[in-house]
Amino acid sequence: MAYDYPDDLLKAQRDLHVVRADLAALFKALPYSVEPMEAWARPEGYWLSTSPAHPDSRGWTDSEQRQVAQLRERERELAPTIVTHGFWNEVAEPERPDARSGLRHAVLAAAAAPGSGEQEA
Questions:
Q1: Where does the record place the region Disordered (predicted)?
Q2: Spatial separation of the C-alpha atoms in residues 108 and 17, rounded to whole Å
């Protein structure tokens, strides 16, 4: 079933998608440790499939820590805005999970469409 999502709900979901993508990219680019840490190796015999050796970590700069904090705060603002939006009261309770999933898919599909300007924050 197709839903007629309000523009403010679509924008909030779009913004949340962008914030989460930005946060994931930032985490991928940052050192593994927030605090400076010397190189270390995990003892043999652990079941983890990740590398047993970790290089020195310079730690995160104050600027990087602020950037992560700002993105996390924005995520904490957007998530409840989406979950508590009045639109959900217009959807029959048994249909809400599908409608919520449909919102995420609608936003992702629009972002993936050629020529879409969905990268605004």
A1: 96-121
A2: 8
Determine contact, residues 30/57, Cβ cutoff 8 Å. no
Give per-residue pLDDT as tens, 41-72.
877 766 766 777 888 999 999 999 999 999 99
Q: Is residue 82 part of a domain?
A: yes
Sign of the alpha-carbon torsion through 8, 79, 104, 96: negative
Contact, 72 vs 6, CB < 8 A? Answer: no
Torsional sign, CA 69, 26, 16, 120: positive
Q: Which of 106, 75, 82 is nearest to 12 (CA)?
A: 82
Q: Which domain holds residue 102?
A: 7-34+61-112
Torsion of Cα atoms, 68 then 74 then 75 then 80, to 10°: 160
